[in-house]
């Protein structure tokens, strides 16, 4: 069982090499992926500045995983995620975080269930999850549009119906 109080320090150098200070060896993204799977606490920092690069490295690992085999994120899903950056960013982040944690909790509760049985279960759930996510996105879209319509009632508010009058004035010039 990994020691959750100890955070393993990984340093990233300018030549893009990663150095594990615990084992005093250079490691790869694959090695970091193993640390994640083993639930070992770690932090990746820039060797020169000390800047925390953990999220960036984790995104690289996801990008590599998406390139190999069957991706989790479809192009449409990625476009949807990109559209959520801004007003609903916190809401989507929280939703995704809770959803993934729920799957992890279910997996932990099932204990030693075989990988194949888990994969079969998850593949059978994909249509349901896609439908639920589609409904959620549609509801969020309607909430966003309703909010925009509400602000449209106030002329002169940036990005609303009040701007249409200004655009008409610009056409007359």
Q: So what's the overall shape?
A: globular
Low-confidence stretches: 159-173
The level of helicity is 55-70%
H-E order: EEEHEHHHHH
Number of domain modules: 2
Give the class from helix and strand content and strand pairing.
Answer: alpha+beta
Output the number of helix runs: 6
Query: What is the C-alpha radius of gyration, as a whole number of Å?
Result: 23 Å
Count of beta strands: 4
Average of the residue pLDDT scores: 79
User: In order across it, which strands form the biggest sheet?
Assistant: 3-2-1-4
Q: Approximately how much beta-strand content do the residues carry?
A: 5-15%
Domain PHA accumulation regulator DNA-binding N-terminal: 9-68
Organism: Geopseudomonas aromaticivorans
Domain PHB accumulation regulatory: 73-109, 114-149
InterPro entries: PHA_DNA-bd_N, PHA_reg_PhaR, PHB_accumulat
Description:
- Residues 9-68 form the PHA accumulation regulator DNA-binding N-terminal domain.
- This is Polyhydroxyalkanoate synthesis repressor PhaR.
- Residues 73-109, 114-149 form the PHB accumulation regulatory domain.
- Helix 1 (29-37) packs across helix 2 (54-67).
- The protein has a four-stranded mixed β-sheet.
- The N and C termini lie far apart (72 Å).
- The chain has helices spanning 29-37, 54-67, 75-84, 89-109, 115-151, 162-172; strands at 8-12, 18-20, 25-27, 42-46.
- It contains six helices and four strands; from the N terminus they run βββαβααααα.
- A hairpin with a 4-residue loop joins strand 2 (18-20) and strand 3.
- The model is unreliable at 159-173 (pLDDT under 50).
- The protein folds into two domains: 8-67, no CATH class; 75-151, no CATH class.
- The longest helix is centred in the last third of the chain and has 37 residues, at 115-151.
- It is α+β, with helices and mostly antiparallel strands and 173 residues long.
